[in-house]
Design a protein that fits this description.
The structure is a single chain. By secondary structure, this protein is α/β, with parallel strands linked by helices. The chain has a domain of 39 residues. It contains eight helices and twelve strands. The strands form three sheets. The protein has a six-stranded mixed beta sheet with strand order 6-9-10-3-11-12, sandwiched between helices.
Length: 256
């Protein structure tokens, strides 16, 4: 039986173009947990996501990140993905010449032994079921990855990838942006269906609306490169009611 995944971030400091953006962030996400990370624009949420996945623009100046006890920062981006880390991007890229189906099958096989690739029928059955759950036209599987997709279709395609790849830790960077109300519900239901001890999730969002469908176990408020408050799902509702000015005022007064 596989162990419960654990992502451990300890006193992480990250710079972009020699300017410190993340200023000592600590966080632990375990399998079976959904953590919501909320905060205003420019506070470092997406920087955290990109840093964890290994984007070369972001320089770790101090701290550590471990996935299942392994030093994540010592791994290349592809090695992090093979270890079970997944990032649903805020702005998914278009890849011409590579169909969604081929991309997914290649990614799945990259995490399997070379002698044991996924059977084509099994892959197609899983892909069709996942697309049906997301109310995606199956023809999208034969189109080039994200090419010509609307913003909402790209976001659903990110969740499709998560459903197919079954990562150990998933980082969902503003997966609700660009989605209408029905699409938010569909995406949220798919995320909820994946909840279990074999996966931990870090859900980055500005707004409480997706949290109306996904009840997080833990809510963190990030401000100025740090986590300044942590609580349960009621913290997100309080933030929605009072706004981020409440956080700014509390920080200025030393109450956060």
């Amino acid at each position: 039986m596989a162990s419960v995944p654990v992502l451990e971030i300890d006193d992480l400091h990250v710079a972009v173009d020699n300017q410190e953006v993340i200023k000592g962030l600590s966080l632990v996400v375990r399998g079976g947990e959904v953590h919501a990370l909320m905060g205003p624009n420019g506070t470092g949420k997406s920087t955290l996501a990109q840093t964890l996945m290994g984007h070369p623009r972001y320089t770790v100046t101090a701290g550590s990140v471990r996935l299942d006890g392994q030093d994540l920062l010592a791994l290349r981006t592809d090695q992090r993905a093979r270890a079970g880390l997944f990032l649903a991007m805020q702005y998914p890229h278009e890849i011409s010449g590579v169909t969604t189906a081929n991309f997914l099958r290649t990614a799945i096989n990259a995490r399997r032994p070379e002698s044991d690739p996924i059977r084509l029928k099994d892959f197609r059955d899983q892909l069709d079921a996942a697309m049906d759950r997301l109310h995606m036209d199956r023809q999208f599987a034969n189109r080039y990855l994200n090419e010509g997709f609307s913003g909402g279709e790209k976001k659903r395609n990110e969740i499709l990838q998560m459903m197919m790849l079954k990562p150990r830790i998933a980082i969902l960077d503003e997966i609700d942006s660009g989605l209408d109300i029905d699409a938010v519900r569909l995406v949220a239901e798919a995320i909820e269906a994946m909840r279990g001890p074999e996966i931990g999730m870090l859900l980055i969002t500005h707004y409480q609306r997706i949290l109306s469908y996904i009840r997080p176990d833990v809510v963190h408020i990030m401000y100025d490169g740090r986590i300044v408050r942590t609580g349960d799902a009621t913290l997100a509702a309080e933030l929605e009611e009072r706004g981020y000015d409440w956080v700014r005022t509390a920080m200025a007064e030393g109450r956060a």
